[in-house]
Amino acid sequence: MNDQASQPFSRTHCEKPKDCARTARSARRLLGYVFLLAALTFLSGVQPAAIGAASAQPASAPLAGADLAPALALLGTDSYGDTDAALGRLAVSTNTRAADIVEAIRDGRLLFDPQSKAVFLRMPDGAVTDAATGAAVGAPPAGLRPVRVNNRVRRAIDAAAGALALLSPDNQKRLAAAAAVFKSRDVSALPILDAALAKEGDPKVKTALEQARAAIIVASQSVSEPERVSAARLIAARGDQDALAILSSLPPNSPDAVKAAAADGIEAINRSLAMWAVAQNVWYGLSLGSVLLLAAIGLAITFGVMGVINMAHGEMVMLGAYTTYVVQEIIRTSAPFLFGWSLAIALPLAFLFTAIVGIIIERTVIRFLYGRPLETLLATWGISLILQQAVRSVFGPTNKEVGAPSWMSGAFDIGQMSITYNRLWIIVFSLLVFFALLLVLKRTALGLYVRAVTQNRRMAGAMGIRTGRIDALTFGLGSGIAGIAGVALSQIDNVSPNLGQGYIIDSFMVVVFGGVGNLWGTLVAAFGLGVANKLLEPFAGAVLGKILILVLIILFIQKRPRGLFALKGRAVEA
Amino acid sequence: MDSQSQALTQSLLYLDNVSVVFDGFRALNALSLTIEEAEMRAIIGPNGAGKTTMMDVITGKTRPTKGEAVFAGVHDLTKMDEAAIAQLGIGRKFQTPTVFDMHTVEDNLLLALKEDRRAFSNIYWRRTPHEKERIDALLERIRLKDHRLRKAAELSHGQKQWLEIGMLLAQEPRLLLVDEPAAGMTDQETADTADLLRDIAKTQSVVVVEHDMQFVRDLDVKVTVLHEGSVLAEGSLDHVSANERVIEVYLGR
Amino acid sequence: MRGLGIIDRKGAVFLAIVLGAAVLVPASNLGLAETNPLHVSDYLVPLLGKYVCYALLAVAVDLVWGYCGVLSLGHGAFFALGGYAMGMYLMRQIGPRGVYGNPVLPDFMVFLNYKELPWFWWGFDVFPFALLMVFLVPGALAFLFGWFAFRSRVTGVYLSIITQAMTFALMLAFFRNDMGFGGNNGLTDFKDILGFSISADGTRTALFAASALALAGGYLVCRALVTSKYGKVLVAVRDAESRTRFLGYRVENYKLLCWVVSAMLAGLAGALYVPQVGIINPGEFAPANSIEMVIWVAVGGRGTLVGAALGALIVNAGKTWFTGMLPEAWLFALGALFVLVTLFLPRGVLGLWASLTEGRRKTTAPAPPAMPAAKPAE
Hints:
heterotrimer, B: about 250 residues, Rossmann fold, 4-stranded antiparallel sheet, 10 helices, C: about 375 residues, mainly alpha, two-stranded antiparallel sheet, disordered C terminus, nucleotide-binding (chain B)
């Protein structure tokens, strides 16, 4: 009797494996930062001379291949010590080939000729080039040997790669390297930062480099007080958790002015972080609201407009999701190149399929029950059990994997907010469906007939409208919309025979809360409940928040028994 | 407090400046009306004139947006719910006959009898000889004696109308609001209904809403014409029939 | 009240069967040899006891739905609350015999690092107190809920939906570990009831007899209500609520009384159910359960009380049979039952029986009017 018992939790706790994948990806990125940090630490500790050299002649190093010569000479000696020293030089080289060379050493593709001490670079495709110039070497000398690598050299490689990244011609690499320094706040990276700053042209990278520099000097005893104060302000301007961490961990012996600037910064950051947190929750709320809207919008037709307490509504959503699954399976096996289009293909099919199922249900069962809403509840509940079991028998009880096309994966940041593409698209999609439905009901002949039949069935019949057909089409429309909602929800929920059960109660709450028969009410209720739920969650927790919302709805119905936007006046009394 | 001495009015029903607004639509617009003890009044007016809304206000179904509704000089009807108003002694018959279909004719009357309305005491209720007498008398009066044990659902339309009037009488109200009692009746039934109402009006006040002019003429009482939520004219049927505005908006030329 | 006048022929047969079962089932189980074809097996006794509890629950649902027109989709909540009240008593009876051997705290509390018994567990070691709570807790919830809902005139579909919200919210709440009711696992591993081992044959048959007596008692209470003038008013409310109001009845009070009595009977059913199945967990609050109860009533025949009990028996016996023989087909069968009964048997099995017997007696008589359709949302 309690097989659905744990269902509601699966949705509140974990959104989807895809999200978890995203988390894993960012975890890997973090690991990358840590690695770079280790590299820089090493660089500073082991190679003071090299750094000194770099800071002595920061920006004037010639761009020609000539400055590679000393390093290359060291690499040809086949000694770990020399390789190490060579890497030190490469790290501060402004030559664009330096990074390639470092990479080649790591991959064992840097070769030297034991006789001539000449150094060659084997490209990943096998071609051998001159390490200094990059020119192809037609006939490489025989007996080339790779530059050998031990742990010490490996550390030097990482360090050199990190330092080179700060000077890399690639903006993204410099940005990542600057972020790594910002995190590490390693004093010894300062000279190289200065060098990078001096020649930085990209404003975004420049800001990142300045922030990294500020993060180091704000805590530095050897820098003047005004400089530290302005560094503190610079960091505060970032406004994120990292900035907060730096400002709140200043050395206790810092001057009062620096401390005061940091305190101001902390306060400002906390304020802005709190606002961003609210904004993020509102976003989550809108996202939940769009899910509620998608789930409820078909019900707003079958229940709201037609008065059928359609407990099989959730199963229509479920059938839509399974349609998506089947479409993707067929594409996978017979036309993989279409995968990016799978959702677009599934949409009309899901609509048609669920609409047809809906029409069959209407013609065989529901049409005998008009005017007896509570009986429709029982009959449609029975239908929902049959549909669930049918899907379970055909597809099995386990979750089905529905893939996401590339344009739906990934995320981007706005300020301190993270926005995933699948959620964004679902919000957009829910609104599109909503307005399309509104258009159908307000602007088409079908919509006119639907409104006529639901307002006065007998009069509509007397005017020559085939009410039976309109009933079937309306129910089909509501079911079809539930089906396309299923296509969207397959992207964020587990596609299983129980999928619909998870939405049915929420959907009814939304429609009832919004006011039965009022589409705009459904829209406001869906987003209102979604946002309220997510804003409650930080205080009450996910489950308690949901309970509070339910209690709130129960209380609200007492106050306004017909929902948020109820029709008033004589029409209702009649 | 001696409320009797502070009575606003000697009239049984006193409506003053009552307005009801639904979403910007004025169903009643500053309506004022008084009904005296043991008076019968006919209310006529075109559809949408506010006749039903007026009854809704009197019986507590609709709260007026503004204005006063006072019963027997002391009871503020705008602050009471339907049950309290019904217990005060205001009975209402609906436009479409509303009886309890699954109950017998007798039980319909039993439920309407002026008795204890509380839930708990009705669990321990047992029929008294007095109740039986009253029901017998009512059945006689509404001519349903032979149908006593039939389900109300099985009655004809006219019989249901009369059963509902019988239920109204069983309540022993001081004021009866009767909405289109002659609707759907044969001529003979209509005439009988008029007789019955006139008989009732000897002891109780009756407000009749009706479209059937012949029926109103049969009643031969003061007539109030409603239009767009307020009183357009008042007086004898001949008097209001001669009113230019009444002819224009309702009777037609 | 009105003594035996409240029992009609149908009711007499029903009471005879129920009371007969209360005597014969224990007698057969304890007295007859296992080889005797009339022996009721040890497996069957608690199963039948479970059905009887469901029958009492169905009678409670029928009181509000069949006679008052209130379709509750939340009666599972009252049933489960009664069950939890009994479960708490049974937990306290375990005493130091739990896995952790704590004389006061039930195992799950020890596991969750409770230092002392939460206040709402106080007194549950005393049987009369627990029994009182079996009635009071569901009754109080029903009173609170009904007080607001009926006063605000929430009717029809809206009422059904918020009753569903109520049981759903309670389910979520009871799933939480920090509610203090055992969370997901609920309450189980019971040992004794009133000092008797819960798994002993004697206890089981006694529990069955108690359930049958409770069903008979619950039926009589409902019957007394619906045959009184109060009951006539209830039916009037069901068929024409606003007319009843205009007659001067405070509809909300009538509904509330019936609603609270029904909730208490549901609580009693839950309390008898728990010792017989040996567990109570938040799954009992699942909205699907409450909907299933309604179909029991619909199958048997709404507004008949006896039919509700019969429907509970038919559907649950069917469920036991199907899940044993054709587990795949059970949901198909149950679903089809929902559809077919609403379409073809609006008065349920009892109504079918009535029209068949009547048809035999006087073939020309018009079929009695079907149960009035639930009012469309006003």
